[in-house]
Amino acid sequence: MGDEHHLDLLWGRGAATGRGRPARTTREQVVAAGLARADAAGLEDLSMRAVAADLGVGVMALYTHVESREGLVALMIDAAFAEITGDLYPHPGEPWRDAAARQARALWELYARHPWILHHGSRLPMGPHVLGMEDAFFAPFLDIGLAPAETANAAIALRSLVTGLARDSTSEQDQVRRTGVGLAEYWSSINAVFWERYFEEERYPSMTRLWYEGGFESEDVLAEEGILERAVEAYLDGIAVRVHSGGSGQDAGVARRQGAPSRAGGPPPSPGGPR
Amino acid sequence: MGDEHHLDLLWGRGAATGRGRPARTTREQVVAAGLARADAAGLEDLSMRAVAADLGVGVMALYTHVESREGLVALMIDAAFAEITGDLYPHPGEPWRDAAARQARALWELYARHPWILHHGSRLPMGPHVLGMEDAFFAPFLDIGLAPAETANAAIALRSLVTGLARDSTSEQDQVRRTGVGLAEYWSSINAVFWERYFEEERYPSMTRLWYEGGFESEDVLAEEGILERAVEAYLDGIAVRVHSGGSGQDAGVARRQGAPSRAGGPPPSPGGPR
DNA sequence: GCCACTTTCCAGACGTTGTACCGAAAGGAT
DNA sequence: ATCCTTTCGGTACAACGTCTGGAAAGTGGC
Predict the structure, then answer these.
(1) Residues A36 and A141 both lie in one domain
(2) A178 and B CB contact within 8 Å
């Protein structure tokens, strides 16, 4: 297999020559097994030995399809994003706010299905479907009268808002799963022990006051989606204000780069690119 | 030391009795050594052996101060947040938007100093300074005419927005540090290899168009702070709209909970609390 | 001064992890 | 049938977190 670049695997380049001993498993099977295990038990239970055992295969057999554990996780992440990239671009005639909100929801639900993506340390891999997701997030803000840089920032910030909220929301479930203790006992132990033993109401006046005013009453899981909806709506409101009033960037930056680009290559996939 | 609860360590409860062999290091020293190492080399280089070697101490000596590696990281995170909790609450007379923006900046800069906090998998530990930060973030939104639940959501979403943006921005520097390759070569290799070998302009039309329009031109590091400023401003604009027009929640939920609370204890420190 | 008692320190060991090495196995091409 | 290419899997190794047991180093009581 050509070790030209580790990105080859993400972009499906390593074409089999047909010669040599045939592999007992496909790369798709390996990635699927990893996905299943991560969905069920989290990233910290994704050991190469465990994945190999799930497939009934020796450990080192995995390394014919992935170049490392981290490479496997990269493939898994890109495969996960393939779930939503099919219907992410704005539909014809769909208002930009509806499209952006729909994208935010899709990303949110993807993170709910695969929370390990959020607890994965490094950046998203530059795979085709991750890039597809990022590209789609730019689309709703393209022709609404924002300057190009504002357009880019608006989309990146929306993505980050969803990611941050999802991370906050899923991390506690993740912790519950990791420690093995059930959700009920976890919270009951927190409630029983933490508040009376450590929390000092006068030290944290804002939370205390909000508590007594009922600000933390939402107990159902769906209310957690409410916070996404509200935050996205508020943020898009802010973008809308920017469009109608101080926008003035409709044609300021259009076709500015028809000459010689200051950097060779193409667009960066993520916040800012080279800095 | 009483192993009543792992939270005792975070809240500084384990008081030394004065008897027995005195410890050669203090818990503060251990946490500081861990902080220094994580700041310099990231969380994945924070091994117990390395921290012990930095202190000139045997490995197991650390376990008299921390109960595990994860407990050490929790202490480190709480210690890091202590850097900003001193001046986080709104100043007297400070407009709520200024206070919220200032908090967002402070959190952003904290993450820039300690990016490993963002790449840490599980949720923030329930330490006194983490709680202090969370409490302060609620304060600006308290008396601006939002319903209690909206107040809580607004603060949580602002925190998540900053965290998400910071995570996106710092993860690539983190990746550079982890792989050992310098920033310049990293990006030059990305630029030289990626765009011409993998990227297909017709497959990612939004990014391609934004690129040609100059949407990704910000090359300086400070521009990265611009994205935070812009996103926070947009979000706070959305909150402001909510306050002045459709708010109507000024007194809807005040003092609703003076009777018997539906849950025993006190306010939850984080999004939603028990669900 | 001496002795119990308590706490900390450290060397070694154990189990688990990712993965390098290498000979054996298995199929296509000649 | 023989080569050639690729995959397979047992073994090995270094690094990791942390348990264990005994030695070390103090304090309090006599």
Answers:
(1) no
(2) yes
